[in-house]
Amino acid sequence: MTEAAIKKENKDIARQYKELLRISYQMLTADDKKLIRSAFDTAVDAHKDQRRKSGEAYIFHPVAVAKIVASEIGLDATSIAAALLHDVVEDTPYTLEQIEEMFGETVAKIVDGLTKISSLKKDKDVSLQAENFRKMLLTLNDDIRVIIIKIADRLHNMQTMDAMRADKQVKIASETLYIYAPMAHRIGLYNIKTELEDLGLKYTEPEVYNEIFTRIKESKEEQDAYIREFSRVIENSLEREDFVYEIKGRPKSIFSIHRKMLNQNVSFDEVYDKFAIRIIYKSEAYDEKFFAWKIYSIVTDHFRPNPTRLRDWISSPKSTGYEALHITVMGPKGRWVEVQIRSQRMNEIAEKGYAAHYKYKQGDVQEEQGIEEWLNRLQEALENPEVNAVDFVEQFKLNLYSKEIFVFTPQGDLKSLPKGATPLDFAFSIHTEIGTHTRGARVNNKLVPLSHELKSGDQVEIITSENAKPNVNWLDYATTARARAKIKSSLKDEKKEIAEEGKAILTRKLKSQKIPFNEKSINELVVFFHLKTSLDLFYRVGIGKIDNQKIKEFASSRSNALVSYIKSKIKKPVVAEDLDKDEITSKYDQLVFGKDQDETLDYKLASCCNPIPGDNVFGFVTVSDGIKVHKKDCPNAIQLQSNYAYRIIPAKWIDSSQQDFRAVIRLTGIDNLGLVSEITKEISSNLNVNMKNINFESSDGIFSGRITLVVKNNSILSTIISRLKKINGIDKVSRE
Known about the structure:
6-stranded mixed beta sheet; alpha+beta
């Protein structure tokens, strides 16, 4: 570089620094300026020999990130200093110890968090990206500023990505849409979220982006004219009331227009709400709410509102801290237009997120609770190793993009939940202990099922019981990440307890067959029963799926010494690969078809005989409904086998312990006092059995009953039937 160019560059750097101080949103004291100057000098020195891909001096990047942090997000001097230093430890000889010595523990901690995030392996694979995202959140160190500066860093990288290779652009843009835009949304940085989404679209789908960008540009003049016309109608009324205000148009982002075009399958011209009108008014804190509703009444005096589209985020702010009144009115030229009414304070919070909260509510504990709660929730979810990383990210995004509802506790406290939440979600949002011991729920004083969808304004009371515990069906009722993670964790613990009992039972059973309990025999058992892990084996023994009969079958196959000897010579012993894996295989119920039992095909269970795992079954190829599976003693079996023998496929259940199946049993006997109580007690004392329906009739001292049960497999059902037969007074128990 020539001397003149270096001089010009240095001048630019100095100018950028001055601008950084000038545009800072927070009031900077003399000490703050000293801290920022020192951080700036250190960054200039550290990056003096580095250049970006575009050829400009590297120092422009940390300064640009600091400017975003200072003005667009509005953070304090500590954050500005950390932003200036964010790449120093990673890319230059400076150490973390030196940073701590020069700038103190807080700045060093933030820089350390940012360095850890940057050093995560970037990968195109979504599951690895998700895992990195989880690790990234773990580096928070209870300091949200790490994430905020990282978002600012990503925004500047996205703004200056033109010099990169196309494949790299797509990769970084995809990661931005997958991870960083949702995070900016969650922290309440709506402007930055919008820009990240638009830039993400620019690099992932350039043609789509450019087309919408051009169309917006073309329609800008028409939009401005429309906003002027709208303003003219209400200006007199607003001025008559002495409001100090401004009316602005806010165009919808390219990304959200594109999303609307896709979701509603419409063209650009058919997207009506391509912009919103924002009325920002000046007021003292005590008048804020009153003024908002006054402006609302002025707007609706002139324009007809759509009552279903009123959004009152002033009485109940969003969990991100967002406050505003949104109304949709029929504007000039018969067009629906969204009007957003906000005070200056609300507007700053909408644009700068939590930084604006801190400015307006310094020292007010209430305001910090929102961010604290978010961090605690994150921490809880992160520390739960049961949750798969992709599920975690998807649930995280699901929870933050979903619309919110507000429900009340019996004491009248307000709780915010995602739309679609159920009483179970509510229970877990209060406390894990309440969630796991939920027995039922009352909504507005009426008993409701746990799957009941809550609505804003509902008052929810959770009924708990010491004996209540989660079951698999709860996963169908819970929608929030927190509730689902806790339920999965609890179910896993319960299965492990059963597996522990099963291990003890198996030790005794093997002993009686004179088989040693060691790794070799456990491996043989796992292979023999077509399982995957030793925990699978112990669990199935614990629930009675692998009973004495099956252990005897295994023992006899093993004791035939000559056959075993020949087998071992002919083929290598099979080793269960995942034998020691600490998991119980889920959804391992499997039907195999064909003579050699080696085909897994799609099938449906026949409704005429309701087969359940463990039953003797066969497959029947129907003309239009694929393979139907029938019990061998199904009423229709003989007719099917004789008339359509060529359509019959042999079938067998190789394992069954996970899913729930319906089975109906019939009972007859002599009626006596307390018999029904005895029957239900016997059933409920059995493991993993649920009664869905009970019907008893008594006539002249004889009773008949029909009970619908939900069971895992036919071993459990057989156990129940044999136990019921032993009850005094019962004559016959059969399965329907």
